[in-house]
Amino acid sequence: MSTYADGESLPMQGLASYIRQRLVQSLDFSQPNPDRWVVVDVESSGLNPKKDRLISIAASAIVFDAQRRPRISLSDTFEVVIKQPSECVDLIEFEAIDKRNILIHGIGLGEQQQGVEPGLALSRFLSYVGNSPLIAFHSWFDEILINKALRKVLGRSTLRHWLDLEHLAAVLHRENHQLPLDVWMHRYGIVCEERHQAAADVLATAQLLLKLWPLLQKRKATDWKGVKSIASGLKTLPGRNLPS
Is 106 helix (H, G, I), strand (E, B) or coil? Predict the structure, then answer.
């Protein structure tokens, strides 16, 4: 006989299926969808993804035609505000850092209290993403917050296919220092009237990818593996001093 973590007995013949089930719940073995990529952005209670809370997620799909030309699918979008624990909402009334972030992302205490229950919100997000790879600007921030929330609420992590668009833009333009999204938007004439709101930032990020696409076509890198390979060249750029 074997036992569960809580001490209940498990027949030996069921051990293999139990392990497989736990692995499926905690790991992602899917292959990335080649024809639908998802751009994502989050809002949080602060700037430390390991300590702060996930407040909202917005996303939009980029789809490809037969010639590997991408377009933003405005009919294929996702947005949710996650209901915050009442003790956190009560506490942040007294915390200046949360007040500053509310001024930035515009999601007030009332809207946070009326958000979607975390389990339902995150399940809907996973269903929306499916097997599509994820793209974000400074994706490490979004990835840490989303993964942390998924592990805490659903007991699993999210999709493992992520692309940092800041890395990709830097490599394609051979920049040796980190540039914020606003700089890239100005360089490519991308207009965003409501910066630092997740849905608007998603659209700006998606537009940046489309602006970079001709450079990827010149390198004949228009599939996920090729784009990821180019973005990984960040570490080889001379003089660039960024954490790996």
Answer: coil
The 10s digit of each residue's pLDDT in 207-233 is 999 999 999 999 999 999 999 999 988
Q: How far apart are CA 233 and CA 226, in angstroms?
A: 11
Q: What is the pTM of this model?
A: 0.77
**Element of type H or E holding 82:** none
The residue type found at 41 is: D
137-143 own/partner pairs: CB under 8 Å, 24+ apart: 137/41, 137/164, 137/165, 137/166, 137/181, 137/201, 137/205, 137/208, 138/164, 138/166, 139/163, 139/164, 139/165, 140/49, 140/164, 141/42, 141/49, 142/40, 142/41, 142/42
DSSP state of 225: H
Q: How far is CA 180 from CA 18, 72, 104, 137, 172, in A?
A: 46, 22, 16, 9, 15
pLDDT digits (tens, 9 = 90+) for 21-40: 555 544 545 689 999 999 99
Instruction: With H, G, I as helix, E, B as strand and everything else as coil, classify residue 41.
Output: strand
Q: Give the residues across from 162 on adjacent strands.
A: 134
Domains of the chain: 34-236 (3.30.420.10)
Taking the C-alpha atoms of residue 28 and residue 204, their distance in angstroms, rounded to an integer, is: 28
Is 23 within 8 Å of 154 (Cβ atoms)?
no
